[in-house]
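Hello, quick one for you while I still have it in my head. I'm working through a protein record and want to make sense of it properly. Would you mind checking whether the tokens look sensible for this chain? I owe you a coffee for this, so here goes:
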Amino acid sequence: MNNSAFNEQILADKLTKLNNSQQSIETLSHWCIFHRKKAKQVVETWDRQFHNSLREQRVPFLYLANDILQNSKRKGSEFVAEFWKVLPAVLKDVYENGEDYGKSVVFRLVDIWEERKVFGSRGQSLREEMLGKDPPPALEINGRGSHSIKIKLAVGGTPEKIVSAFQAVHDGHIDEDAILTKCKSCVRRVEKMDKDVEIACETGCSGSAGASREYASALT
């Protein structure tokens, strides 16, 4: 590839021919890094062509950005500074509107950049920009109305199953305070049930049937 001159239209033409092959990505990456003094123009052209491309053609752009970022750092931070200006919006676009494959690429690249500190301490900010700050595991319950609540529960745990049961029962408008109160009540009942079962096992009494009925009652 001829490295002797830089022109935004030349780069735009090269980007239209970019594909997922290692050779295609590395060759164009080397050309861009050779012109690192034009990093601002390179990244602006990259960003413009990314948004003008079809969605199924955007993953190679992400791979190209990754290759440029990781291989240009030893020569300077020009590309790190410029890509930081555009990548959050680009990643968010792929994450929200792309296919599953594109989303998995986004997560993988962010993990790599965070692990290798490509953006220094700003790597975590990139993740927050894409997904929101410190997103907790959440179970979202949506009613037919506009209200929804997010309850921070362990996935697959008994409280989550109880809430899921409430979701099935309350198929209409949800009163957030009421459902939270009922959830707490159910958790207390389940804890009591656990104690009853433990006592039954210790004493040899057949209390399991009653405990099962109480658990079923907690779900109604």
In short: The two ends are 70 Å apart (CA to CA).
